[in-house]
Amino acid sequence: MTVDLSLGEGTPNVDKDARLKRDEPETGITPGGSSGAFRDVLSPRHAHRGKPPIHFTDMDQEERAAAMAKLGYPSFRVKQLGQHYFAHYNREVSSYSDFPQQQAQVVENTFFPSLIRPLAEQEADQGTTVKTLWGLFDGSRIESVLMKYPTRTTLCISSQVGCGMGCPFCATGKLGLTRNMSAGEILEQVRYAARQARDGRLGQPSRLSNVVFMGMGEALGNYKAMMKAIRQISALPPDGFGISARNITVSTVGIVPGIRRLMTEGIPVRLAVSLHAPSDSLRDELVPMNKRFAISQVLDAAHDYYVATKRRVSIEYALMKGINDQAQHARLLAKRLNHYGDDWVHVNPIPLNPIEGSRWTASKPEDEKRFLDILHQAGIAATLRDTRGSDIDGACGQLAAKELIRQDQTESDPPQDIPNWTKD
Ligand code: SF4
Question: Of which family is this protein a member (predicted)?
Fold first, then answer.
């Protein structure tokens, strides 16, 4: 089944069939992957995927009120749950002093089933970076990374189990896609991290201020759950965590229909495009989705996103030694970006953190510097990205990927011992 993302919510005269088609449940296959020269890479586990239990954050207001009525409580109790969950990061109904306690456990099981549990944590950067490996209800593994900076605290979250994009330099890409995550599973990463930050897990108490969809998965391949999560990250309590939409970043390899749909949502999240190459011939190799949506289509959509939202687009570019980090690559990238005018993008080159045994390795520092200099000389804003956590497992999805590969080998679940990790 194909998920049609080509029409925005607000588009007039939306074709009924297309709307119906779009309302069908998503399979985890990206809309770009069902035709053209690209197919999502599926994990052998894809066939066995199940549905996670329904969570408070998966329900709309009517569904919450109906579930509450079924337990014999008036609808104002829903608001109380939302306040405890979003403002205090607390899902333990038995600890709510303002809530009837006779059925506390039933209420908790109904609205806040346990969706994710921390299996292990790794620290880096003197304790200001914490990476968490999560176990999901079906034994799946995902990860999130919490990072403290002088002026902000950022959480990088996963939106899919594995990833179907098949980028050959990426650990997650090697796994293939198992399934989409639910909004509840995505938001539980946020709640847990917000509580950790508040309680001083990163050294001093801080407030979670930024969320980036740059963990495992292609966020636009799980559009509905991603959007549901974004709305509840940005709404104020009792409807959401109250993190400004401007501090939320959605990262994509360039799913053009998804970018175009996102721009109709009226929510000013930042868009980050993982470009990694300035020419189609090279990008076809590094980012296989390019065979479906070529660079010019991706940059057209990214520039339209900038025009529609007034948010500068980030271009992510993993620098790989001798592959995409030479002067001619920087010059071509600058030319392609300047084609659309000034000041609409910010390029973030990031030294690749290679996976073991891979032929893709990190650039030399002098090549990184030259790459950056050429962009600057061409008038393009560019900053070498902070490689937070690179001394643990910096490449995207690598922590969970490592564990999944191990699990595939041993078929044991959950892990009993993970060397060098702090058990939670
Ligand atoms: S680099 Fe990103 S898009 Fe590509 S396979 Fe890895 S997680 Fe997926």
Answer: Belongs to the radical SAM superfamily. RlmN family.
- Neighbour tally for 307: CB within 10 Å: 11
- Give the span between the Cα atoms of 140 and 400, in whole angstroms: 9
- Residue 364: helix, strand or coil by DSSP? coil
Query: Does the CB atom of residue 167 touch ligand 1 within 6 A?
Result: yes
Tell me if 170 CB under 6 Å of ligand 1: yes
Q: Are 56 and 64 in contact (CB under 8 A)?
A: yes
Q: Is any ligand 1 atom within 6 A of the Cβ of residue 350?
A: no
Topology adopted by domain 52-113: DNA polymerase; domain 1 (1.10.150)
Q: DSSP for 274-287? A: E---SSHHHHHHH-
Looking at residue 216, the DSSP 8-state letter turns out to be S
Q: Where are the domains of the chain?
A: 52-113, 114-378
Query: 25-61: per-residue pLDDT in tens?
Result: 456 678 777 666 778 888 888 877 779 999 999 999 9
Element containing residue 304 per DSSP (H, E): helix 295-309
How many Å apart are CA 75 and CA 67, to the nearest integer? 9
Is residue 171 pLDDT above 90, yes or no?
no
**Structural Rg of the chain based on CA atoms:** 21
Query: From the alpha carbon of 397, which atom of ligand 1 is closest?
Result: 7
DSSP characters for 163-178? Answer: -SS--TT-HHHHH-EE
Could you please state the CATH topology (level 3) that the domain comprising 114-378 is classified under.
TIM Barrel (3.20.20)
Residue 217 in marked binding region: yes
